[in-house]
Amino acid sequence: LEKMTDLVAVWEVALSDGVHKIEFEHGTTSGKRVVYVDGKEEIRKEWMFKLVGKETFTVGASKTKATINIDAVSGFAYEYTLEINGKSLKKYMENRSKTTNTWVLTLGGTDYRVVLEKDTMDVWCNGQKMETAGEFVEDGTETHFSVGDHSCYIKAVSSGKRKEGIIHTLIVDDREIPEAVE
After folding, report:
1. In 72-109, which positions are buried (b, 16+ CB within 10 angstroms) versus exposed (e)?
2. Model pTM?
3. What domains, with CATH codes, occur in the chain?
4. Nearest one of 77, 80, 50, 76 to 67, comparing CA atoms
5. Which end of the chain has the smaller Cβ count within 10 Å, N or C?
6. Average pLDDT of the residues of the chain
7. In angstroms, rounded to a whole number, what is the distance separating the alpha carbons of residues 150 and 168?
8. Could you tell me which residues are beta bridge partners of residue 151?
9. Do residues 38 and 21 lie in contact, with contact meaning Cβ atoms separated by under 8 Å?
10. Which H helix or E strand runs over 91?
11. Dihedral angle at the C-alpha atoms of 118, 121, 127, 130, nearest 10 degrees?
12. E strands, 7-99, where?
């Protein structure tokens, strides 16, 4: 395994199927560009004449589009920015916090990351899209699924305030799990 001597940028991207690590090597003398996603080489280009430009690839189970922009700042200095689905990483993560809920918990010594995609009501756990069963209850809905031998559900209840919208709560073995901040 060759040492990553030209590593210029590392990003962590939280998607529904997990947190992905993106690493970028840029050889400013050789023109080499290498993109790694979760340690696996996605793109390798040797001897690129142009040192600026962009590299586009996909991340995660849902094949989310990612682009690394390479811009010259001054002389031989370069700036590297990551875009996810055409938005800056910061904007993407801000928007994501509005469209998803994430919970992190430990059950029987195993760590789990549960993500609810509010627009589709899809539930992901440690990178797997879960089989769910929806049910209407007196004050809202419950989306039921299992993690190992633990029964779980996400309860959706109206906040009664238009600005806040719907409040989603994860219940595992009759215990409420606090939401994680990513």
Report:
1. eeeeeebeeebbbeeeebeebeeebeeebbbbebeeee
2. 0.83
3. 7-85 (2.40.128.180), 97-177 (2.40.128.180)
4. 80
5. N
6. 91
7. 19
8. 146
9. yes
10. helix 89-99
11. 160
12. 7-15, 18-26, 33-37, 40-45, 53-59, 64-74, 77-84, 87-88
Q: Supply the Cα-derived Rg of the chain in whole angstroms.
A: 20
3-state secondary structure of 137: strand
Residue in the block written with tokens 């910061």:
90
Residues 3 and 10 sit within 8 Å (Cβ to Cβ): no
Q: How far apart are CA 124 and CA 76, in angstroms?
A: 43
User: Which tokens sit at 181?
Assistant: 């901040």
Which tens digit of pLDDT belongs to each residue from 41-79? 999 999 878 888 999 999 998 899 999 999 998 877 899
Q: Which tokens hold the place of 13?
A: 């991207």
